[in-house]
Amino acid sequence: MELPFAESYKIKMVEQIHPSTREDRERWIREARYNLFNLKSNQVFIDLLTDSGTGAMSDKQWSEMMIGDESYAGASSYFKLKDAISNITGFPYFLPTHQGRAAENVLFSALIKEGDFVPGNAHFDTTKGHIEFRKATAVDCTIDEAYDTFVYHPFKGNVDLGKLEEAILKYTPSKIPALVITITCNTSGGQPVSMENLRQTYHLAKKYDIPVVFDSARFAENAYFIKMREPGYQDKSIREIVAEMFSYADIMTMSSKKDAIVNMGGFIAMRSEELYRKATVFNIVFEGYITYGGMSGRDMNALAQGLYEGTEFDYLDTRIKQVAYLGTRLKEYGVEIQEPFGGHAIFVNAGSMMKHIPKDQFQAQTLAIELYLESGVRGVEIGTLLADRDPVTRENRYPKLELLRLAIPRRVYTNNHMDYIAVALGNVAARKNSITKGFRILREAPIMRHFTVELERV
Ligand code: F0G
User: Fold this and answer.
1) Is 450 annotated as catalytic?
2) What is the pLDDT of residues 306-348, one digit of tens each?
3) Ligand 1 lined by 340 (C-beta under 6 Å)
4) How far apart are CA 29 and CA 9, in angstroms?
5) Tally of structural domains, the chain
6) Which residue in 63, 90, 171, 420 has a CA-CA distance of 20 to 30 Å to 13?
7) Is the peptide bond before 184 cis (omega within 30 degrees of 0)?
8) Are 80 and 107 contained in the same domain?
9) Which of 5, 37, 40, 72 is catalytic?
10) Mind listing the pLDDT tens digit for each residue in 132-141?
11) What does residue 197 show for φ and ψ, rounded to 5 degrees?
12) Is the CB of 259 under 6 A from ligand 1?
């Protein structure tokens, strides 16, 4: 008999989580004004709000915490992290930041000016936010297949090279300070970008002398998908694949809270000494001195160790197979989800599942609340609430996809938890037609409304 799959680690420390009754949850979610961000963590049983900063560090990472060097300048922890980054990515220069959006803030301060255009695959919200904050424009050049959840494509994060070249010619290279390629692409559902696409995108960028930035939060998961799905990479190690991936970039921003398996942290790395010098000034102003930039020494140590662990095949295999396990179980229960499964999350097609509810009553939010009421599982709406209003007309912006994201923290939950989630959502799917009403907005902020919005039942 073939041996079944088992996790590549065992558990050394546990944390209590909190089951609750449906009655409790009815009250809590009402008090939270039907916004899942307003719940207290002990009102949640299984928390799939995000995979960012919610992973479990290893025994080796915790021991690195004990030997962190907290010197203001020249700490050994800084050099340990610098070595890890250059070993894994090949970039000689780096600046630590407190998280991913801080890396974007520092880098874009050095790179982007008013009136610029920044094409790429679909940019993450904070990336787009930092571009628009500088009165520049993010241009989405993702392949069309990304927006059809029922179509199979092994690399739905890919850039459409035709759209990209069109954008470069339309906006002219002098107005394009960089391309930003997000690996894996969170916005299109944790979908990977192929090595061939990275290579071709890089060559196109070089033709017009435009630097390429990788938004690298989930770069290791991207490498895993290349190994599993792209011809010619089966026999290469994750580290070899990662090294080749970064050879097609000039700069990277990193939210270390994902694939580097730490609870807080980020960095920028690059090949150009000139850009490094320019960005250093902004890093010192916004984040901290060059050799700590918003991180403590102990955190830089844990991050260095996390980068090595996060690029090990066995760890990634456990991780991605757990996400796929949840996807497979959900399909068995008739839940409509995006395929192929993403690296860090399962995306439920709430728009199709809840199509009997009007769009302006927030289909994905309605599903997220029903899942919470059913089971205490907290997912997150990636739909109309998140897409917010058009800045000019103030009308709701209806996105191409109305999704419920179930993001899986790294090394935290077991497959029993995955079974629990699958049954819970299966139960909701089975009674979906009895859910006939959604929600209306009581109060919302002028931007980023989803974090603080207050809702009531229609
Ligand atoms: N880039 C990507 C692709 C991300 O997914 C995120 C964060 C960031 C940048 C920003 O990094 O949070 O460290 O400042 N994504 C989280 C999520 C918040 O839930 O997907 P950060």
Assistant:
1) yes
2) 999 999 999 999 999 999 999 999 999 999 999 999 999 999 9
3) no
4) 35
5) 2
6) 420
7) yes
8) yes
9) 72
10) 999 999 999 9
11) -70, -40
12) no
* Pick from 242, 249, 250: nearest CA to 223: 242
The full length of the chain comes to 458
Confidence of residue 150 (pLDDT cuts 50, 70, 90): confident
Active site residue 243: no
Q: In whole numbers, what is the pLDDT of the chain averaged over residues?
A: 96
> Would the CB of 378 count as within 6 Å of ligand 1?
no
Same domain, 191 and 319: no
| 3-class secondary structure, 46 | strand
- Kindly state the tokens that stand for 389: 């209003």
Tell me the CA–centroid distance for residue 333 and ligand 1, in Å: 30
Cβ atoms within 10 A of the Cβ of 70, count? 11
SS3 213: strand
Q: Where are the alpha helices (DSSP H) in 36-176?
A: 59-66, 76-89, 100-111, 125-133, 161-171
- The β-bridge partners of 407 are 345
- pLDDT score of 436: 95
Tell me whether residue 16 is in a domain: no
Residue of minimum CA distance from atom 18 in ligand 1: 52
Judgement on whether residues 278 and 360 belong to the same structural domain of the protein: no
Q: For residue 382, which of 358, 363, 409 has the smallest C-alpha distance?
A: 363
User: Does a structural domain hold residue 434?
Assistant: yes
The residue type found at 279 is A
pLDDT digits (tens, 9 = 90+) for 219-245: 999 999 999 999 999 999 999 999 999
Same domain, yes or no, for 45 and 133?
no
Helices vs strands, H then E, count in the chain: 16, 14
Asked if 276 and 268 touch (Cβ cutoff 8 Å), the reply is: no
Is residue 292 within 6 Å of ligand 1 at its C-beta? no
Mean pLDDT of 296-315: 98
Q: Are residues 239 and 216 in the same domain?
A: yes
Nearest Cα neighbor of 180 from 242, 100, 288 is 100
Task: State the pLDDT confidence band at 271, using cuts at 50, 70 and 90.
Answer: very high
- Torsion 256-312-406-252 (CA) sign: positive
Residues 201 and 284 grouped into a single domain: yes
Based on the fold, state whether residues 274 and 399 are members of the same structural domain.
Answer: no
Of 215, 250, 259, 299, which residue is the catalytic one? 215
What pLDDT does residue 187 have? 86
